[in-house]
Write a structure and sequence with these properties.
Strand content: 15-25%
Largest sheet: 3 strands, mixed
Helix content: 25-40%
Radius of gyration: 12 Å
Shape: globular
Number of helices: 3
Distance between the termini: 14 Å
Length: about 80
């Protein structure tokens, strides 16, 4: 299980943390989108207003091309 933390307004609007059985960040995002139908729309609207989010796996910030990469068994959280 991986704990996914949504910080700030994102966590206030949806959920501050959720436990997911996933093997990549891409799977985690898909699970969040499946549980919160407005998630994608919210992110697009935030981006349109100049708000950007970063994704951290453990302590490492990752970019879009790493989303489908497997998460190490040592990692316990995504922020």
């Amino acid at each position: 299980m991986i704990t996914v933390y949504l910080h700030g307004e994102l966590g206030d609007y949806f959920i501050p943390q959720i436990e997911l059985m996933v093997s990549s960040v891409q799977e985690a995002l898909s699970a969040i989108k499946a549980n919160f139908k407005e998630f994608t729309k919210y992110l697009f609207e935030a981006a349109r207003q100049g708000v950007n989010y970063q994704i951290r796996v453990g302590n490492q910030e990752i970019d879009e091309k790493l989303l489908p990469c497997p998460i190490s068994n040592k990692v316990q959280s995504i922020h």
